[in-house]
Amino acid sequence: MSESVNLLDPDLFPHGSGPPHELFSAWREDDPIHWNPPNPEYPPPRDSLPTRGFYVLTRYKDVADVSRNQRVFSSHTGGPVIWDLSAEGLQRQQAGLMGMPMDAHRAVRRLIVPPFTRSELMAFQPQIDAVAKEIIDEVAGAGECEFVFDVASKLPVYTFCSLTGVSPEKRETVARLGNLNADVENVDNYAGNEEMDLAAQLFQISTQIVAEKQAAPDKSLMSRLVHGEVEGEKLNPLQLNMFFLTMAIAGHETTRGTAGHFIRLMNEYPDQYELVCSDPDRYLPNAIEEVLRYAPPVTNFRRTVAEDVTLHGKELHEGDKVYLSYPAANRDPEMFPDPDRFDITRENAARHLAFGIGPHACIGARLARMQLFALLKEIVTRIPDIRPGEIGRLRSIWFDAVMRMPVTFTPER
Ligand code: HEM
Fold first, then answer.
1. What is the reported pTM?
2. pLDDT tens across 204-220, in order?
3. Cα of 274 to ligand 1 centre, how many Å?
């Protein structure tokens, strides 16, 4: 099977039952720098070209080492996504935080880190808790709902909008466009229609927000970026728009997906769920880490080799592409003994790579953990017998996301 398998095939990965873990285990053991050929059948998404082959890393240590080494394995030269990009697509990616040149990236991170520090987030916590409670208030009496959009999506959207400075009336539009952008492989979203340039639609919104923040500065992230300087210069409009687009996808899709995986996995492993419910304050934080380890919502990012290097005896040349597999790294037995066992008491679960590691590690990790704890605690204490119906997963080679999940539970009185 291994020979014919191609990670560019959306029907293989991670559609249906999730990432191909058996295959990853085989590669991790015998072929730690596996060559994935191009897939001529695979239709590239908008702004992309037919995608060249790439090397796949499946060992924890390799994924971590490469992520930390931007000088040799760059997020900038080819952008952070596995697809090969058109000139315009690459220009956009390189203007964004994930694809910036190293020095500019460091400077922008310094500008935007303050709202994500522990003390600032602690001040934000009461708002997050209040919204989590409201979300469950709205569904708790009904005994059923559609979990993904009625529950899981709302808190990350609210939080992202509040942080970036989006007004409440625009929240739904931003959430919808963020979702469609993440569903990047769904050609029906584009169909060659210029009106469906989803990024351009998000850019329109962000341009308005930039104008608002220019006129009236506040403490929001967009205001910090609009008024801040990087290497003595203001950020240009494309950089500001790309930051907004990244946040609209990264700050939403991922957290929502993890909440969905939590409900799915707790239903599959009722003994683990019983333990969580027995003492949520004690068990829920590590249960969230184990869900992130076991089912990371982002399945890969890309690096491009910036100078020739040898890895596991294979010579990699400048321009070669490297695929970092987070699901595979998170099941490496060298790091996580008995890795296919879902165990919410696993001592080192939080060492997973679901948030990446190194200079581009997720800036929202602490915030995501806070949101997930707030929302899931409301669920396990108020509607603990929540049961999923038929689950629909996104058809994607990039995100492993639950897109549809009807749930039922005993209504709260
Ligand atoms: C469960 C939730 C989340 C997961 C699994 C996740 C995953 C990731 C991963 C794997 C990266 C690393 C990219 C790389 O190394 O190339 C990343 C970066 C990033 N994430 Fe998250 N993320 C989550 C939540 C969030 C939230 C809530 C926000 C913001 C509100 C956010 C904003 C970002 C940004 C801006 C970056 C780019 C950082 C950089 O390039 O310096 N993420 N995320």
1. 0.94
2. 889 999 999 999 999 88
3. 30
Inter-axis angle of helices 253-268 and 280-294, to 10 degrees?
110
What's the CA gap between 131 and 374, in Å, rounded?
9
Q: Taking the domains of the chain in order of start, what are their residue ranges?
A: 98-296+328-408
Check residue 220 and report its DSSP letter: S
The Cα–Cα gap between 205 and 141 comes to 35
Q: Is 255 in the pocket of ligand 1 (CB under 6 A)?
A: yes
Query: What would the pLDDT profile of 119-156 be if each residue is shown by its tens digit?
Result: 999 999 999 999 999 999 999 999 999 999 889 998 99
356 lines ligand 1 (CB under 6 A): yes
The class of domain 98-296+328-408 in CATH terms is mainly alpha
Residue 304, ligand 1, Cβ within 6 A: no
Q: Is 78 in the pocket of ligand 1 (CB under 6 A)?
A: no
Question: Burial of 162 by CB count in 10 Å (0-12 exposed, 13-18 middle, 19+ buried)?
Answer: middle
Atom index in ligand 1 nearest the CA of residue 358 equals 15
